[in-house]
């Protein structure tokens, strides 16, 4: 029977290169394990030199002895806070890189979900192998057949893409709803302003008419007074 594609999983602390948990496939040879562990150590040293950042990733290919089972690749990925780095060693040279990093992303999320920041910061070498053993065994089994796992991953990606499109559509609908409400509010404000302007116009018109009447009355009174003054000599 073909051996599982995933040969080893491990978690290390980025700050001091301490390997906190590790699980290897029991069907592998000691030489294979030593090769993968050497590559893992190399990646850890690289991460320290480059000051690991969230999402940092790298890989190391080892050997080309397909018959002896020494060929493969070790992939590394830093978690979302660069507190720890997760590793996967895969056999052969045909395991898809995209799939390897998908496995590591899932692994990192499960590690952070099951272990507190304090536990990851203070745990000694190998002390998290027990608590994380179930997670590592499950991942090794899920990704043991790259072809099948890749199809599942592809389906998940399509589902995530559809979910993303749906969320975008809902967001646009909500934004449109908000825009409509804003327009309605502005329309109501403009209507109120127009009503107020109309009322003020009516009041102003009435004031102007009242003033015009007062001016006419005053003019009539003055005209009458002047007329009477001019006619007074005739009455004497």
Q: What are the SSEs and their pairings?
A:
Elements: E1 6-13, E2 19-24, H1 30-49, E3 57-62, E4 72-78, E5 84-91, H2 97-114, H3 117-122, H4 129-142, H5 146-235
Antiparallel strand pairs: 1-2, 1-5, 3-4, 4-5
Helix pairs in contact: 2-4
Give structural notes.
This protein starts with 5 loop residues before the first strand and ends with a helix. The protein is rod-shaped and about 150 Å long. It has helices at residues 30-49, 97-114, 117-122, 129-142, 146-235; strands at residues 6-13, 19-24, 57-62, 72-78, 84-91. The protein has a five-stranded antiparallel beta sheet with strand order 2-1-5-4-3, with helices on both faces. Helix content is 63%, strand content 15%.
- Structural class of the secondary elements? alpha+beta
H/E element sequence: EEHEEEHHHH
Give a quick account of the main beta sheet: strands, pairing sense, barrel closure: 5 strands, antiparallel
Question: Helix count?
Answer: 5
Q: Bin the helical content.
A: 55-70%
Radius of gyration: 42 Å
Overall 3D form: rod-shaped
How many angstroms separate the termini? 147 Å
Strand content: 5-15%
Strand order of the largest sheet: 2-1-5-4-3
Low-confidence stretches: 65-69
Q: What value does the average pLDDT take?
A: 84
Total beta-strand segments: 5
In short:
The protein has 236 residues and is an alpha+beta fold. The protein has helices at residues 30-49, 97-114, 117-122, 129-142, 146-235; strands at 6-13, 19-24, 57-62, 72-78, 84-91.
Key features of this structure:
5 strands; 63% helix; five-stranded antiparallel β-sheet; 236 residues
